[in-house]
Design goal:
This protein is of the alpha+beta class. The protein has 30 helices and 14 strands. 46% of the residues are buried. The model has no long low-confidence stretch (mean pLDDT 90).
């Protein structure tokens, strides 16, 4: 193995080990959660369904074969992340999200390795190429983005690959495979983000330049035109087509004068502020121009200008890119701008006698650039938004990142974050779970072996092996991550129940986003899961009223609940509902649970702890709570507190073992006679075999705890849905359905008022 390959492999290992030493493994943005959701759905079910983050996309207007919206993003990152999802599912005691968050650790390290290979391809020395690769890795905004799950690092890798493959073709224009591969990298960039089409400049500039000097090369021109046409056709609607509407152009015209100076010259948001070492690269660009190396000098500049202009055109007033870190939309340009550092590094290492002041300036800028990245990785990026919110309250005016944060140095992100270091918990995973003593030595060992591997191929491969071991040990060490609820024993108990009871046809429903992080990281079953968006009628903050205040429970529910649950019901046999609320949680309406109790059939309470409940439901449409229609089967069972006047069996009287037996009861409240203590008595439904023994039973509060007997008005009628889950080994035969009302304190049953006993036989069913 030659030193070229050794160096590439070692640079990758060295950077990956360094990134893992400060690994965060936790999202900071809804965009990241959406991208993870797409990758997880793709690896599990072959779709892009937003099962965890459906609240980030509108429900209305989705296709009839969809339950939740799909991620309408370019697919490449999801496809490339799918293997990490599969690895996390197969290996025990490592988190799903933790593992997928390795993606940009690997992508950014690979970008640094490719930058080294690019430098060597251009004829620069080993030390110069390695230095620039490491400067890119630790001294630019690429460093903090290696800890996030945005698409920009992958887009940067694709763009650099397009330029590198083009350079390989320029070195030998008759080897057209390199040119085709370069356009393939452009296509990969386009399937990463819309802006990736700008990287087509790399092969196009090369083709034009080479053809000017070798006019017989008509074939590259033909191939380039054909491949560019294919790319344009594949992504026309999502990229170029979006720019052609008058409304889009008008909005873009308003955003461009604001965004362009923010990207390029502002003190709080420009590219150079978050990667100061790139200022030095401008001197490298001037050196290339003096040497008449037009292609190397022009390509990074043109792509930088294309991104700086193109993003405001594509995104209009979303040019800021959210509260991530720095100029997020220009992150993909960073590797190409680092190419301008190559002649600077070559001058430094080639024995040229640089003035001491120049060396001092170079070193100072590099240290400053590294320090900026250290600030970025020390705290969660979300702390910047928190700090601006506090400043807004303090000053009595709104201070926002895309205005004051761009131009007012007092609210410059680096300065704001720097002031919080020491007072805010670290974002590094090892600090969160206090396992740095285990992981950091392994990272250091992997990095040291990688350095040796620059000249010894066995050490280069040994470094890769150590890196994989380090990843596994680190992911095991951070498994019980409190940021994902890994320190909540009740959630682990719920997961244990789930793993022991899930079977084909089950669906897990997660109430709101309270336990979304836990399920995201630790739920590995292939059975479908859906995080239910928090209804506007729910009181998320006990102190403040909900957004929708109504005595009508249907108005408190989300308007798309009917559609969403009806579609899930068509594809499932049982629902398991995970919720943080119990009937005694103060100031909560339990809107989603109440909706399920009204429209479907509650079956079992599988777990009830102070902070977690796990319930099961039969996904069978229940009769409406309103009357009429009246029940099909009439009854007259007076228990004193209430009289059963009828019931419905939506699935008739014939069942199989393992089925749900849904029963909808209709009660008339009688009030509490003098001989009965006012109490919320329990409903007992039992399936009795020929020997008089209970083969299945459900004991629960009426109406799934949403209004017991003490709240019923005498003379009023109340629907009450229940489901008996029939055992899977239930023998064939005929069974009776008995109804009792019991005192939950001691299990005693209320007698029927007609003196016939304590139970009413509702109907006889047959198990086939």
């Amino acid at each position: 193995m030659n030193t070229h390959t050794n160096g590439t492999l070692s640079i990758f290992t060295l950077l990956a080990a360094l990134y893992f030493a400060v690994f965060t493994g936790h999202p900071i943005s809804g965009d990241e959660r959406l991208l993870f959701d797409a990758a997880r759905s793709l690896a599990t079910h072959g779709s892009f369904a937003l099962v965890y983050s459906s609240d980030q996309r509108p429900f209305f207007g989705i296709a009839t074969d969809q339950i939740v919206p799909s991620a309408d993003v370019e697919p490449l990152q999801a496809f490339l992340s799918a293997p990490l999802v599969i690895v996390a599912r197969l290996l025990p005691n490592i988190g799903m999200a933790h593992t997928v968050w390795l993606f940009n650790v690997l992508v950014t390290a690979l970008t640094g390795a490719l930058l080294y290979a690019y430098g060597r391809q251009l004829g620069y020395g080993v030390r110069s190429a390695a230095a620039v690769a490491l400067i890119f890795g630790v001294g630019t905004v690429a460093f903090p983005y290696a800890q996030m799950y945005f698409r920009e690092p992958l887009l940067g890798l694709c763009g650099l690959a397009a330029a590198y493959l083009t350079e390989r073709w320029r070195a030998n224009p008759r080897r057209l495979g390199w040119l085709v591969a370069a356009f393939g990298a452009v296509l990969a960039a386009v399937f990463t983000k819309q802006a990736g089409v700008l990287f087509a400049l790399a092969p196009l500039l090369a083709v034009v330049g080479v053809s000017r000097h070798q006019r017989r090369l008509w074939l590259p021109l033909l191939i380039s035109g054909a491949l560019l046409a294919v790319i344009a056709l594949l992504r026309w609607d999502s990229t170029v087509g979006r720019l052609l509407s008058p409304e889009r152009l008008a909005r873009a015209a308003e955003s461009l004068p604001e965004a362009l100076p923010a990207y390029l010259i502002s003190p709080g948001f420009s590219l150079w502020v978050f990667s100061p070492i790139l200022v030095v690269s401008l001197f490298g660009a001037l050196h290339l121009l003096r040497k008449r190396q037009w292609h190397s000098a022009a390509l990074p500049a043109l792509i930088l200008l294309g991104f700086a202009v193109g993003h405001p055109l594509l995104h209009s007033d979303y040019w800021y890119g959210g509260l991530a870190w720095g100029t997020r939309f220009l992150v993909p340009v960073t590797p190409l701008l680092c190419l301008w550092l190559l002649p600077v590094a070559e001058s430094f290492f080639a024995g040229q006698r640089l003035p001491r002041l120049t060396k001092f300036a170079l070193g100072s800028v590099l240290l400053l650039s590294i320090a900026v990245q250290v600030v970025a990785i020390s705290l969660p990026a979300t702390r910047y938004g928190v700090a601006l919110a506090k400043a807004s309250q303090r000053e009595g005016r709104q201070i926002v990142a895309w205005r004051e944060g761009v131009w007012d140095v007092r609210y410059q992100p680096i300065w704001v974050m720097l002031r919080q270091i020491g007072s805010v918990p670290s974002a590094v995973a090892w600090d969160v779970v206090h396992v740095g003593g285990v992981v950091l030595p392994l990272c250091a060992l992997s990095a040291a072996v990688a350095l040796i591997g620059m000249r010894r191929w066995r050490a280069a491969w040994l470094g890769v092996a150590l890196l994989l071991i380090t990843f596994y040990v680190g992911l095991r060490a951070v498994y019980a991550d409190p940021r994902y609820g890994g320190d909540n024993p009740d959630l682990w108990a719920a997961l244990g129940v789930l793993e022991g009871t899930l079977y084909e046809g089950d669906v897990l429903l997660v109430n709101s986003d309270a336990y979304r992080p836990f399920i995201t990281n630790y739920y590995k079953s292939t059975q479908p899961v859906y995080v239910i968006p928090t209804p506007e009628g729910e009181s998320v903050d006990p102190v403040n009223p909900p957004a929708v205040v109504s005595t009508n429970p249907e108005e408190r529910a989300n308007p798309y609940f009917q559609q969403m649950f009806a579609r899930i019901a068509q594809r499932s046999n049982r629902w398991l509902f995970l919720t943080e609320y119990n009937p005694y949680t103060p100031n909560r309406y339990r809107v989603t649970e109440a909706f399920l109790a009204r429209h479907y059939f509650p079956a079992e309470e599988l777990l009830n702890t102070p902070s977690v409940r796990l319930l099961s439901y039969a996904p069978i449409s229940a009769p409406p709570m309103s009357l009429p229609p009246f029940p099909r089967y009439a009854a007259d069972a007076n228990f004193g507190v209430a009289t059963l006047i009828g019931f419905d069996l939506p699935h008739g009287t014939r069942y199989h073992a393992g089925d749900f037996l849904p029963i909808s009861l209709l009660w008339r409240a009688e009030g509490f006679p003098p001989d009965l203590e006012p109490l919320d008595y329990s409903i007992n439904l039992s399936l009795i075999n020929a020997e008089g023994a209970a083969a299945a039973q459900r004991v629960a509060q009426p109406r799934a705890t949403f209004g017991g007997f003490t709240l019923w008005e005498a003379g009023a009628l109340y629907r009450d849905h229940h489901a008996l889950h029939l055992p899977a080994n239930l023998p064939r035969g005929r069974y009776q359905v008995w109804l009792l009302i019991t005192d939950w304190r001691d299990g005693s049953a209320l007698p029927l008022r007609d003196g016939s006993g304590q139970h009413s036989i509702l109907i006889e069913i047959e198990i086939e």
